[in-house]
């Protein structure tokens, strides 16, 4: 919205600053942070008055019983802050940004419905229904994206200018490592979005654990989105050039700012929990950005913590069903370390450090191609 102030630059030269993505990304991050702080206080009081509070599962770590009664669904104000800030600062003609926003809102809506049912009826959606909604939502969105793929200008420039299909995937660390999946890209992209969303959801188990890695992942992809949207940078760094993807940096800055605002209230001891409305929405946001900027494989590294948490659950369930034995003391992985004697704060901070290191490794791929 504020981007269009740039059209008045001939009258007011200072408004030329709204042309620059870097300035608008900074503005979006600060705006989202302030909105998140403001809405967070209001929502915590509202949730407390309505008794919309978390019930701690009986088979979780015993130390978590002290968290009983903490307001939940706080992820709602993260999503609101992201949306308001993005619409305020982004170029509203950016179809790529609208796609990511819609994907985020769609998954946040699924999470909100599940949270609301848990709080009002005592049980959330059936697992199969919830999973089917996630898959069908991702499938519809990916099909819509493919229908309009001709509107996206993409090229992979290595020596001579070349191009590749929207259904191609690019492998980090290697030059010219591109594979066109064709129609197989559809299930691949669906799995990526659904997997990213649920992996973030599984990681959300300790105060502040998931929100900082989300902020780190958003900052990492912000850099990739900005570089991918700049033809000269993309050519020099041997990454896909996607015209208009730079606007996603504004969205990702808003996501990071809103996440830090949430951390203000979610740091130990948490005043509010995120709920599925936040974790599913934020996970889908990161996954959809990875698809748009053609850095899908890199998500395994950028979101390595989320991958590890999800794999721990898969391994635990598979091992118990096949052998009757558990690999971990408890899954997801953060509970295993809690039951191994680590304090909650130690688990959280060490996982933050791991996320940061993985993000730096992801950024290092820019010079290893």
Structural notes for this entry:
The chain has 369 residues and is mainly alpha-helical. It has a domain at 94-246 and 264-367. Helix content is 61%, strand content 4%. It has 13 helices and 5 strands. The strands form 2 sheets. The protein has a 3-stranded antiparallel β-sheet with strand order 2-1-5. Strands 3-4 form a two-stranded antiparallel ribbon. A hairpin with a 7-residue loop joins strand 3 (168-170) and strand 4. The radius of gyration is 21 Å and the shape is globular. The two termini are 37 Å apart.
**Contiguous runs where pLDDT drops below 50 for at least 5 residues:** 156-161
In terms of structural class, how would the helical and strand content be classed?
Answer: mainly alpha
- Specify the helix fraction band: 55-70%
Count the beta strands: 5
Order of helices and strands: HHHHEEEEHHHEHHHHHH
Which range does the strand content fall in? under 5%
Computed CA radius of gyration, to the nearest angstrom = 21 Å
Q: Strand arrangement, largest sheet? A: 2-1-5
Distance between the termini: 37 Å
What's the story with the biggest beta sheet?
3 strands, antiparallel
Describe the secondary-structure layout.
Layout: H1 21-49, H2 75-89, H3 95-121, H4 127-147, E1 154-158, E2 160-162, E3 168-170, E4 178-180, H5 185-203, H6 211-228, H7 231-237, E5 241-242, H8 248-266, H9 275-292, H10 299-302, H11 304-323, H12 333-339, H13 344-364
Antiparallel strand pairs: 1-2, 1-5, 3-4
Helix pairs in contact: 1-2, 1-8, 2-3, 2-8, 2-9, 3-4, 3-9, 4-5, 5-9, 5-11, 6-8, 6-9, 6-13
């Amino acid at each position: 919205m504020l981007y269009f102030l740039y059209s008045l630059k001939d009258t007011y030269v200072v408004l030329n600053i709204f042309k620059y993505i870097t300035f608008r990304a900074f503005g979006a991050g600060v705006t989202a942070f302030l909105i998140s702080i403001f809405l967070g206080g209001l929502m915590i009081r509202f949730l407390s008055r309505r008794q919309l509070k978390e019930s701690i599962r009986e088979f979780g770590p015993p130390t978590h019983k002290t968290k009983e009664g903490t307001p939940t669904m706080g992820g709602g104000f993260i999503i609101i802050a992201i949306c308001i800030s993005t619409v305020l600062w982004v170029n509203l003609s950016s179809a790529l940004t609208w796609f990511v926003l819609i994907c985020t809102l769609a998954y946040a809506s699924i999470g909100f419905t599940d949270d609301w049912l848990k709080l009002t009826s005592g049980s959330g959606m059936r697992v199969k229904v919830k999973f089917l909604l996630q898959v069908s939502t991702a499938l519809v969105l990916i099909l819509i994206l493919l229908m309009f793929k001709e509107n996206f200008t993409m090229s992979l420039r290595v020596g001579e200018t070349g191009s590749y299909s929207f259904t191609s995937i690019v492998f980090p660390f290697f030059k010219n490592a591109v594979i066109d999946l064709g129609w197989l890209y559809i299930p691949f992209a669906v799995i990526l979005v659904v997997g990213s969303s649920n992996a973030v959801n599984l990681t959300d188990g300790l105060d502040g654990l998931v929100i900082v890695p989300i902020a780190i992942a958003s900052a990492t992809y912000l850099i990739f989105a900005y570089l991918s949207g700049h033809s000269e940078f993309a050519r020099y760094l041997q990454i896909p050039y996607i015209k208009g993807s730079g606007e996603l940096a504004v969205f990702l800055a808003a996501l990071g700012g809103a996440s830090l605002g949430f951390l203000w209230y979610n740091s130990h001891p948490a005043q509010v929990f995120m709920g599925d409305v936040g974790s599913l929405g934020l996970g889908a946001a990161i996954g959809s950005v990875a698809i748009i900027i053609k850095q899908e494989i890199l998500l395994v590294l950028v979101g390595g913590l989320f991958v590890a948490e999800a794999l721990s659950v898969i391994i635990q369930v598979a091992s118990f069903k096949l052998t009757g034995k558990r690999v971990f003391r408890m899954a997801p992985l953060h509970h295993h370390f809690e039951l191994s004697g680590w304090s909650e704060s130690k688990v959280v901070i060490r996982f933050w450090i791991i996320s940061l290191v993985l993000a730096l490794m992801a950024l290092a791929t820019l010079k290893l191609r």
